[in-house]
Amino acid sequence: MQTPAPPEQHELNIVSDIICPWCYIAKKQLALALTLAFETTPSAPQFDVTWRPFELNPDMPINGVDRVTYRTQKFGSWARSQALDADVADAGKRVGISFRHDLMARTPNSFQAHRLILLAGHDDRQNAVVDALFNAYFTEGRDVGETSVLVEIANEVGLDPKRALKFLLSNVGADEIRRQEQSAINAEISGVPTFILDGDVIFSGAVGAEAMATYFRKAVKK
Questions:
Q1: What are the start-end ranges of the H helices in the chain?
Q2: Which pLDDT band, with edges at 50, 70 and 90, does 39 fall under?
Q3: Taking the domain 9-221, which CATH number applies?
Q4: What is the value of pTM for the model shown?
């Protein structure tokens, strides 16, 4: 009896920002999209998922800014901001996310959160940390730019909080985050989420799970 070939292994990098609601929506659909694309069989392709940093607001003050002030300036009026939030909330409901924009007092600087994601990668905990960061910001209104909040999140997903605090108070990994961000710019990535399979960009944006599945199938067949 012939031994079946081992499943194909693929590198899936997802360029994202933890203050991007569409990144959260896309993440909610990723597992379903891969199941739709390949089913759950022993021969189904396997994906090593890595989350890569992108800052929607690279010039944001380190302590963030008042959200009403920031969004009013960005979109011209608070009413326009609220209308966009309503669109996001409607999209979130369809994938099981309850966005609580009313709890979000500040728009944070996300650089430190990206450093925590980098640290979590050393313990194979990136996925859990990314989930926790999205949930903390978008459904609990926590300030994910605050070191104390990031340490709490680290503890919640099983990372050593003392180690996380020491890391975040240092400069370790900061240059790596900047290098990865520059790499995304060099690749002409200007929006998130962007999905990169085995080094090639295959799509950007929070498309539906079925559309995501189609992109994955086409990319793997190449």
A1: 21-38, 67-75, 78-93, 111-121, 126-138, 147-156, 161-169, 174-186, 209-221
A2: confident
A3: 3.40.30.10
A4: 0.95
